[in-house]
Amino acid sequence: MFERPGHGERAVLVQVGFGDRPSAAELEELERLAVSAGATVAGRLTASRAAPDPRLYIGSGKAEELAALIRESGSDLVLFNHSLSPSQERNLEKVLSCRVLDRTGLILDIFAQRARSFEGKLQVELAQLRHLSTRLVRGWTHLERQKGGIGLRGPGETQLETDRRLLANRIRMLTRRLEKVDKQREQGRRTRAKAEVPTVALVGYTNAGKSTLFNRLTEARVYAADQLFATLDPTLRRLELAAGLDVVLADTVGFVRDLPHELVAAFRSTLKETRDAALLLHVIDSADPLRDERIEHVDRVLAEIGAEDVPQLLVYNKIDATGEAPGTSRDEAGRVRSVRVSARSGAGLELLTATLREHFGAGRVLGSLHLAASEGGLRAKLYDADMVRQESGDDAGGWNLEVEAPKVALERFCRDTGLKRSRIRPRPCEGSGASLQSRTVA
Fold it and tell me: Residue 405 in 3-state DSSP?
């Protein structure tokens, strides 16, 4: 039994097609994942099979071909674009004499490199440990031996059992820490709900341009790059769509085909921002030839985390690469179903913000309000809230005001100031312009 190397940078990629030819698009995605992890692609191996080989996944003949390719290319790592069982991974490493990593392990490694926040690091470590706990199948020779020797004889616990116990203890500790972090996030969500500020979550396949769009809308400086899983940690910003009409924009982790269940479980607290959102902006790469499949993959993950019923607005990004013009499409009810934009150039973003105003500003109120001369303080508060559209005086020193505000904001104002809602005589609400500002959410 060989001793596993501690690192692997030159990699051979393996893609198997079952009942069909190996998918070139899936192999290309694996290559992008490998590059994102910091590996150098030294070779590729494709194969077609009716079903996975129980022992070596690709069969003994292909395993010998793979071993020859590893020797010729000087590689020290093999990346499978599939999920391997612990025994298959161990058997392949024995035959190939180099480290073998499946798709799940590769994605976990990328997440470990990209996590920056305390919560993100905890989530990634928990996912890694849960994955590793299924991999303790004596891949290392020392795991087969029981402790022994003078002063070391104990109850007969094997090294494998010791490692499992230590892993279980660490997993329990990380789970408790994440529960505490989740309570803190839940408190923030309750505060926003109490303030009646809706959350808009950006979701989509990884590298669809979510972070670039987020930066454009909020003038934030979230890291964005042309690579898979460029950002992991969720970022929240308050976005002012119009006077008195605010939303919280949340940039979330990108999804991917066959997202590891360990990650879905570990990031469940972060993904609650998506599940509890009032609206999802589903960002789609318009230039991706597999965009319809990507949409299905994202919808599948949304269903897995319980967010399948949250309203979605499809945002077709990167129209600068397809030559399409900015625009919107509506459903039979007249509601905007999708928007075409370019986050890189800014084209179409005014249509997106107008759509958000239309969605969340549907409950806007335009009405007339008379204030007596003694209510100057209330008049000042209305101006501070930017709700006054027009004003005229009366003979008694009072004011006739035309006020306009989102229904939610106006009701909150009435509750906070004691103004009776019945004093505002409603009038037909006309469309109004809006500014676009943002500020950090604590």
Answer: strand
